[in-house]
Amino acid sequence: MVGGGGQPQPNIIYVSNQVIDSTGNNNGRFDPGETGKIYVTLRNNGNAAAENVTARLKSSHAQFTITDSTSIYGTVPRDSNRTNRSDPFMASAGSGIPGGTVVTCTLRVHSDNYAHDWTFTFSLQVGVSPIPGQFVFDLDTGAVALSVCAIGSLGYDEPPALDLGNGFRVPRTATSCLFYGSIEAGNSANYLVDHFFSQPANSGTNHDWRMTDSFRIVLPPYPADERWRNTMTDAGHPSPKGLAVEANWYMLANPSYDDFAIVTYDFTNQGTQSIGGMYVGYHCDFDVGSSPTNNVAATDTVNRRVWMKQQSSENPTAGLVVLEPASFANLAAIDHAVWVYPDSCVTDNQKYRMLNGAIGMRSSNRAYDWSALASAGPFDLPVGGVQRVSFAVVGATTQGGFNAAAESAQRWYNANLLAIAEPAVTRMATAERPLFLSPNPFRGGTFVNYFLRQEGPLVLTAYDATGRQVATQSLAVKPGAGRVWWQPGSLAQGIYFLRVSMPDREAVSRFLVLD
Question: pTM score, two decimals?
Fold first, then answer.
């Protein structure tokens, strides 16, 4: 900075930047091949106005080109911010630039009075680095931690707990309270698809599920704090029917919603014949505490829950909840003395009867070694048909804490994931319905669905119930139907209003932020 004596002088500082990838997917960053705008906010914290402020931007990377490198800010009064929205920098990311590349940008700012000059640097990331798939991963952003395998098992990839995975830990620093579990699906003893114990139980596991894609992290992890997705088919079954499955796992960090992991399974019939009378369920061999033969189990048929704990202690209490559909086929305690340890067990016929409710007890009749089972159905899958079934794996240090966590899981699921099962056409904005939020209510973020007759900008302004502005954002979008991911910041639980200013009109939508 150049200036004279002790006279009043401006002092410009760099505050922040915002990327509007207007030719891309509106995800707030440059991806390879995209062009867009760069808004830079400056602040004058000196004791005089900065007059005729101009700025020039330079890129450090040959494949990230600043196509419009100058911007005019005008006069910036003392103690004021200015953003170059009326004259943004323009940039282009080459299609060959590797995802995850960090580009250093140099910003040179000039003010006419006293011939002041300032230089700043900031970084922009182009795309994201490729993330390899994972066969087994840990959901561990919450208070509990759960390992999930890409061929249908829970806790570990194989029993006993000597292979990949860390089980289900409540809390996440504790030892696992889950020996092994698996998702099971089928409509008869001849068509039971699973990765659970085989017959006899010590002979290994079935490998009916075959991975078509390993687990990959979903970014942003909407609507949770951690999200993973994988796909499987029934190709490992002796008589496959073309059943395909997409699994999405979610976990939250919010202390009110951090005692569970949620999974949605979307089953699709990709075969040539209808699959009727299907049941889907989780069978989990929880070993709670240091003495698994001292375990007890119970169910809540009203709220579709099953849980296990030690007879002498509630710490931990672990179990399952059927989140969707709003009904169950079976909630059961499975007695290992009857259905596991004899050499005649565990057959597909027995597993199928556990799924459809013919086998199992609503609660244990003694302290012993038990499994927990939760299932839903029956449902029919015509060729091309899709059915969603969702579960929560819940753990807490008390029985009351388990019930509270199970209730929170259902409440969060209903608010954030239940509507996603609607046909896509009902979730697109139209000229008659130009604005809506999905999901709503939400926590953290939501999609703003819009319909524009002409190119943006789209200005989002949120107000609380008293009319006080609490968040604002401007986005450049293309005409037609679209949606953008919106995170309004740290808003307290309550009702708010979102005003969306479009090139040809304004629209207002009410939304609810959850705790």
Answer: 0.62
